[in-house]
Design brief:
This protein has 99 residues and is an alpha+beta fold. It has one domain. 23% of the residues lie in helices and 11% in strands. The chain is built from three helices and four strands. The chain has a two-stranded antiparallel ribbon. The protein has a two-stranded antiparallel sheet with strand order 3-4. The longest helix is centred in the last third of the chain and has 10 residues.
Amino acid sequence: SITKERTEVILQGTSSLDPNDPAAVWEEYDFKCKPGDLKRRPCFITPYHYRLDWLMWFAAFQTYEQNEWIIHLAGKLLAQEEETLSLMATNPFAGRAPP
């Protein structure tokens, strides 16, 4: 164990025209091996790591200003860039308009 608290960066998008609307539904992008759903079995791929998932874990200990690549990642997800989406376990907007 590294820390006693679990801090996590979660990327979400919405199809709502007004993201500030309390009725807006936010959907989460799942990563292949990053901790997420507590009911999901942990991913074991030792001795390797999924690099993006590993970076997300470390990014949770800092601000986005210290991890500017997260802003670029979010932009690529908003643009539904196939290469970036291939790094994700799920795309909640597959077959739909981008968030």
